[in-house]
Amino acid sequence: MRQRRNSGQIVLIAAFIIASLLLSAQLYILEVGRTLSETEPDSVNDFILSVQLGSRNVVTSSLGNVSNGGASGTLELNLEEWASLVEDQYLYGKSILDYTLRDAAPYSSGIWLGWGANGYGVSSSYSNFTHKLTGLEAEVDQSFVINITTTLLIASTNQKLGGDSRQVNVTISIQNEAEPALAEQITIYYRVSSSWLIPDEANGYILRDYGNGTYLGSFVADVPAESVEISTHILDYRDIYAQANVTSTEI
Amino acid sequence: MFDRKGQIRIIESFLAIAVVFSAVLVSMTFPSSPDLSKQNSLASMGAQALMKLDTDGTLGNLIIQQNWTSIKTALDILLPIGVSFNLTVYDELGQQVNPEVIQNSNLLGREAVSVQHLCATRSQTVQFFVVRLQLAWTG
Description:
Number of domains of chain B: 2
Number of strands of chain A: 12
Number of strands of chain B: 4
Oligomer: heterodimer
Distance between the termini of chain A: 126 Å
CATH architecture of the largest domain in chain B: 2-Layer Sandwich
Number of helices of chain A: 3
Largest sheet of chain B: 4 strands, antiparallel
Strand content of chain A: over 45%
Largest interface: A-B, 51 and 48 residues
Helix content of chain A: 25-40%
């Protein structure tokens, strides 16, 4: 009699145990899922890439500013502000962005503006970065270099047409980080005695764009001397300014 | 007397079944854990779209120009069909910059992920923005 009563209770107890096992298993699966979703390892990679991209934009903009006549300390000021933002906006731990501006010649405070008379002009910026991330998700110590360089190469020849009149051709080649690049603006100057003049329609000025970073400027100028001094000023699509001078030789 | 004992056993068995069945029912009402791979891929897609837009400085320039329509159009193109988004732009001080909503559809009631992107403009005077993109699958 007593044994029969117990067997009925055992069925109920077993049912309760099964039910609690079911519920706890379900809760465990849910909890594990939540923990994993909080980790989001992809967000760390995306943040690192976003910081590298932003650093590149800061260096590019600063070079644009300095090459257009801005203060030489612009790069350092901008990077200081950027590093502070990178530190503040990381939500999963500590983020520190360190930077060193290249000071070895020809760079000074991370900037080199070399606008020579040999047909070569360069506007460049060079900085080393270290990005350290510490937190629950990851420990990352990443070093990278950002070198933004706009190079301008010009060559010129001229041909005597009659009297002092000369046909002048100027070949202009523009590169961004050693890759052909397009210009937003090109201005050619030629020198007559002590004045720099800009050729226009009256000079039959034509600028041909070959689409591969090479341009050919042609014009007719009245210059008594055999050699014509040429200066070319460009602004690339990143708003970085460069200039180069060359002496046009008669052919 | 014997019949009553049998009835009690049947009742006990039904009770046991009811207990197990109710446990199954209760466990079914728990919110399902988010599909992590789907959510992570959505977040990654959002981050990649913002980086793509920022590679040549386009994102920063559009923010400076306050051209919110073009930002929305660009995200419509960069993100796959079936993804809803809502973008908010903040300045360095955390003040919202965009006065109008930049979204393709409402995210209310959807399981959304949030992506944050730091944007430095490519202009001679650098400006910094924090861009927050919320995304959800529409399906």
